[in-house]
């Protein structure tokens, strides 16, 4: 299956109109998720892990207690593709 092409800055900004909590920063999409506690944050990460596996696309993320910081980009393309937007949408759904 061919990997998606890089998106232009205009395409990224247009797509983020539907994802206002995400920030386009350089060659990455970034968002911080805050949860009430560690268990809720970890449950979110578990749900996202299954979505990431289905997409064959995995986030760069860190978890400290109730906070999950995420950076998305398509490593083998060196920037943002439709896979990153799909995973961002899945993360937003998983966060509720």
Compact overview of the structure:
With 96 residues, the protein is an alpha+beta fold. Helix content is 41%, strand content 22%.
Please tell me about this protein's structure.
The protein is α+β, with helices and mostly antiparallel strands and 96 residues long. The chain has a single domain (9-95), classed as Gyrase A, domain 2. The chain contains 3 helices and 4 strands; from the N terminus they run αββαββα. The chain has a 4-stranded antiparallel sheet with strand order 1-2-4-3, covered by helices on one side. The chain is globular. The mean pLDDT is 95.
* Cα Rg: 13 Å
Number of helices: 3
How far the N terminus sits from the C terminus, by CA atoms, comes to: 31 Å
Please, what is the CATH homologous superfamily?
Transcriptional coactivator/pterin dehydratase
Principal-axes geometry comes out as globular
Mean of all residue-level pLDDT scores: 95
CATH architecture: 2-Layer Sandwich
* SSE succession: HEEHEEH
Q: Indicate the low-confidence ranges by residue numbers.
A: none
**Overall structural domain count:** 1
């Amino acid at each position: 299956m061919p990997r998606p092409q890089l998106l232009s800055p205009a395409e990224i900004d247009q797509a983020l109109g539907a994802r206002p909590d995400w920030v386009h920063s350089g060659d990455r999409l970034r968002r911080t998720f805050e949860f009430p506690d560690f268990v809720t944050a970890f449950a979110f990460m578990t749900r996202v892990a299954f979505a990431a596996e289905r997409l064959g696309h995995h986030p760069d993320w860190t978890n400290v207690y109730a906070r999950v910081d995420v950076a998305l980009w398509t490593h083998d393309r060196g920037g943002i593709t439709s896979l990153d937007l799909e995973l961002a949408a899945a993360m937003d759904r998983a966060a509720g």
